[in-house]
């Protein structure tokens, strides 16, 4: 592995001069800086982020926490964060918590040991002591009082779901509610309920965990009494579509199903899933930009990005 000493020897200058040239800190003549950068590229020099962190207040590394990396929503978010990070000469460390607070604590300690420049978290337990070290923090798709966050307009998204089913003729609707620990899911179901009530449409709610258990046990016939089903995300909608297909229920003639996210698969399931599109990739990119603003002492405000209806064959 090429070190900064190897670069200094190659160029014929001191280690301190190489450091100034690489980091644009202090004076290095244009000619020396050019030769150092050319040598770094020629020798494939990779800076040691940990060593750099020991000599500065933070490293060029950002910690990212997600509750479930297997959820197809999160890879696209992470891609947005990573693309923005690389463009700004940063790298990311991803922590998959599996909704486990002990795992989350261990990842936060790893971030601390690496002097991460900040944390982007899509988990829900940010009021814990481990988050109190003053490291810049951006909440992703989660809203907690006194914290800066970025999310899509989930209240509007829920309203769009309900309004669309109403216009398509659904008059007995099931709202499948996502995990109550997350504000994003709460606002989706709240927006849907408000819109259905405004139109005088009969509806019931069902926690998604109950639906998951019913689908697993083969006891989900309960949902067949509804002619419209609002799902908290596309993954849940896929499972509902599969159950209806196995029960020989015609979609959308007998039951209309709408999801939320517009994942890449939603165009290709059968029937194609009507859903609410949120700008998943942009959520990640913007979250990184907000974190950098905080890290540089600039003012940063919470952001709410717009959503839109994507009409397909399931409604």
From TrEMBL:
PROSITE patterns: HTH_LACI_1, HTH_LACI_2
Annotated HTH lacI-type domain residues: 2-56
Keyword Flavoprotein: no
GO molecular function, one term: transcription cis-regulatory region binding
InterPro entries (UniProt xref): HTH_LacI (IPR000843), LacI/GalR-like_sensor (IPR046335), Lambda_DNA-bd_dom_sf (IPR010982), Peripla_BP_I (IPR028082)
Cited SMART domains: HTH_LACI
Parts of the chain that traverse the membrane: none
Alphabetical UniProt keywords: DNA-binding, Repressor, Transcription, Transcription regulation
Protein's UniProt name: Transcriptional regulator, LacI family
Organism: Salinicoccus halodurans
């Amino acid at each position: 592995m090429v070190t900064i000493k190897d670069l200094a020897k190659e160029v014929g200058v001191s280690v301190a001069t190489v450091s100034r040239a690489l980091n644009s800190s202090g004076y290095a003549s244009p000619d020396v800086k050019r030769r150092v950068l050319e040598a770094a590229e020629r020798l494939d020099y990779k800076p040691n982020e940990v060593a750099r962190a020991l000599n500065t207040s933070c490293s060029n590394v950002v910690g990212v926490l997600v509750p479930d990396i297997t959820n197809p929503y999160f890879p696209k978010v992470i891609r947005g964060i990573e693309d923005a990070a690389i463009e700004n000469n940063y790298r990311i460390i991803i922590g998959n918590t599996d909704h486990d607070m002990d795992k989350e604590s261990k990842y936060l300690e790893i971030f601390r040991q690496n002097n991460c420049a900040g944390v982007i978290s899509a988990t829900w337990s940010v009021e814990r002591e481990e988050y109190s070290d003053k490291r810049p923090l951006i909440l992703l798709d989660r809203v907690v009082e006194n914290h800066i966050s970025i999310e899509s307009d989930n209240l509007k998204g829920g309203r769009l779901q309900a309004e669309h089913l109403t216009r398509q003729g659904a008059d007995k609707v099931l709202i499948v509610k996502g995990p109550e620990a997350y504000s994003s899911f709460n606002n989706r179901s709240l927006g849907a309920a408000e819109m259905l009530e405004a139109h005088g449409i009969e509806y019931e709610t069902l926690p998604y965990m109950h639906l998951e258990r019913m689908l697993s046990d083969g006891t989900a016939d309960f949902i067949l009494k509804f002619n419209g089903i609002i799902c908290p995300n596309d993954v849940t909608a896929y499972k509902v579509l599969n159950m209806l297909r196995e029960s020989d229920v015609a979609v959308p003639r007998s039951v209309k199903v709408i999801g939320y996210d517009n994942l890449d698969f939603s165009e290709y399931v059968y029937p194609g899933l009507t859903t609410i599109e949120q700008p998943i990739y942009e959520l990640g990119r913007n979250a990184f930009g907000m974190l950098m603003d905080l890290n540089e002492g600039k003012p940063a405000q919470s952001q709410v990005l717009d959503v839109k209806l994507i009409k397909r064959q399931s409604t």
